[in-house]
Amino acid sequence: MLAAVGSLRRLRLGNVPRCTPGAPPGAARRPVASLRAPGHPQYSRSGAPGGSEPPGSAGRVHRVPAEHKPSQFDKKILLWTGRFKAMEEIPPLIPPEMIDAARNKARVKACYIMIGLTIIACFAVIASGKRAAERHESLTSWNLAKKAKWREEAALAAQAKAK
To answer: DSSP string spanning 109-159?
Structure first.
């Protein structure tokens, strides 16, 4: 496929090849804007930030403090999920990742509890339906009885109104 275009062109970081046949070699590459988000450092292979940073800021790392003051509800979630054994053990400031992990674990536990309660409710409805079938009760018989009662009440009301 590349042979049909002309010759193989090497991709270089920051350049995009143009694949038009007959284009001069110098016009085959054009610079591409950086794809990184502004304000985020670029990291080299050594792990040190690099790229276009102002001089003198090489050793500084700007971070927002990763501490969060837990509310009473957060403290209960941390206890329920087993992060801490007692309310007194919870420090005044904890990382937000710990609260997020505890909330996710509590969410999963709550889902499991709801699944269990749903299964128990299904068995309870099945059992009550079987008992009602043994007594020869059904929704149809209840509906017919209710309508018969309404007809009697309407007839009594019509007789009282006629007097």
So the answer is: HHHHHHHHHHHHHHHHHHHHHHHHHHTT--HHHHHHHHHHHHHHHHHHHHH
Amino acid at site 96: P
> CA-CA distance, 126 to 60, in Å (whole number)?
67
Tell me the per-residue pLDDT of 66-108, one tens digit each, with 9 for 90 and over: 688 999 999 999 999 999 999 999 999 999 999 999 999 999 9
Please tell me the total number of residues recorded for the chain in this structure.
163
Q: What's the Cα-to-Cα distance from 2 to each of 11, 18, 145, rounded to whole Å?
A: 13, 12, 84
Q: Which residue has the tokens 């309508």?
A: 147
Mean pLDDT of all residues in 26-42: 55
Angle at 120 between CA 116 and CA 122, to 5 degrees: 115
Do residues 93 and 68 touch, judged by C-beta distance below 8 A? Answer: yes
